[in-house]
């Protein structure tokens, strides 16, 4: 039986990935940072390992036995660069070195981000072969983590996935937009013309499994073809106006009033969120780092490589996925 280790298994992508891997017949070890994330993972019939990604002694044995390692653990909304680099770069390097020390290293699938690529140039979709130009601390830390993995590419099989905005079951970030649009308002703090790629978490999970089974391995930093890099996304980018209209349709509401929020107000909210996060220690989604990305332009990607090499296709279009997410929120009592 294939043994899969999932880091960051307590996050919403991790929960969905663990469930899919179990359904495929794999033995799964779910690595979580906090004991609070354990309960529903135990219910899924998986072994739960509570560990910090920087504490290799606690997970070395399973990492070196695993056939597949899906590395999701990261700092997504960093309050400062030092923590982002310590976890996203240092943690990734330590995990990869740990796997590489095995007699027969398993495959490492690193979940990076479109943020590592940077925004679109001249309104053209981002491709795997484009030069990278991240604008946020998060994006720069993910790109630096990729660079560390490329140094180890001759010691273990590695593939790198760069998803865009992710939504679906267990995601709370998009929930606020559903709640606002239910009352008829879609607050937009960026240009209405900017377009974005999105991916439903179930489609992303399917893509990750396909990468583990069919994906090429990265070669080196000098490889201009950048084999082993993949964008996994819905193929059709949309604006936040269109997204708001799709959410309204899923709620069986009229199209909302699209309220453009001045950039100064958004920046003020982001600053206050950052300060609150520093005091409480709780993660916030909108912070100064996210505002750097919001101001940078459109963020969408070309998925033709995944389609051609992995035979990847999304199972449902965005309008259907938006409706399915609304239904899941309602079933959980979140909406």
UniProtKB/TrEMBL annotation:
UniProt KW Repeat keyword: no
Keyword Protease: no
Keywords (A to Z) from UniProt: Isomerase
Stretches that traverse the bilayer: none
Domain called NAD-dependent epimerase/dehydratase: residue spans: 4-218
InterPro entries assigned: Epimerase_deHydtase, NAD(P)-bd_dom_sf, NAD(P)-dependent_oxidoreduct
Matching Gene3D superfamilies: NAD(P)-binding Rossmann-like Domain
Gene Ontology CC terms: cytoplasm
GO molecular function: aldehyde dehydrogenase (NAD+) activity; isomerase activity
PANTHER family named in the record: NAD(P)-BINDING DOMAIN-CONTAINING PROTEIN-RELATED, PROTEIN YEEZ
The name this protein goes by in its record: 3 beta-hydroxysteroid dehydrogenase/Delta 5-->4-isomerase
